[in-house]
Design goal:
Blueprint lengths: L2 E5 L5 H12 L4 E5 L11 E9 L2 E2 L1 H7 L6 E8 L6 H13 L4 E9 L4 H8 L20 H15 L1
Parallel strand pairs: 1-2, 1-3, 3-5, 5-6
Antiparallel strand pairs: 3-4
Helix pairs in contact: 1-5
The structure holds flavin mononucleotide.
Flavin mononucleotide binds next to α1, β3 and β5.
Amino acid sequence: MKILVVYSSQTGNTKKLAEAAYEVLPEPKEIYNVKDNPSPDNYDVIIVGFWFKKGKPDPASSEYLAKIKNKKVFLIATHGAAPESEHAKKGMEEAKKMLQDCEILGTFNCQGEVAPQIMQKAASKPTPPEWYKDAPSAKGHPDENDISNLVQKIKQVFS
Ligand SMILES: Cc1cc2nc3c(=O)[nH]c(=O)nc-3n(C[C@H](O)[C@H](O)[C@H](O)COP(=O)(O)O)c2cc1C
């Protein structure tokens, strides 16, 4: 069972989680940035790490998710919105819909600190996006606790 971890990350939040997951996975395994565009066909299990943009997986991840067909998949998401919010749930559902005939082994999502310039941009809109009110509490995430929760989940699924 060959495992691929593929992630997209602008400011490092999602990368941190993807690397933590990778570390505890059994061999054989490989990890790539989505920019490297590894072929999903070469793997049995694919772990995709993405961040939210406009309430959905970021564009590069969306494109990649749509290419995954008939695989076992574990999804990891980071976002500014609160982890239990409808916004967070909807974004994860959007990701699942992008896959073709895949089995979902599990999901993990947590907040990821939002870059200051993005906070400013969001604040300056006539109606700030719905995740904006939660974003201050994303500061410092993913933290040690988030990482330990993810690692526990990955170990459960892949033991
Ligand atoms: C352009 C842009 C749009 C974003 N849109 C959303 C969004 O719709 N919902 C949300 O919860 N967070 C949103 N965020 C926050 C990021 O998803 C969050 O900070 C994430 O952890 C960034 O991950 P990264 O560090 O791996 O790039 C947005 C961030 C950026 C830069």
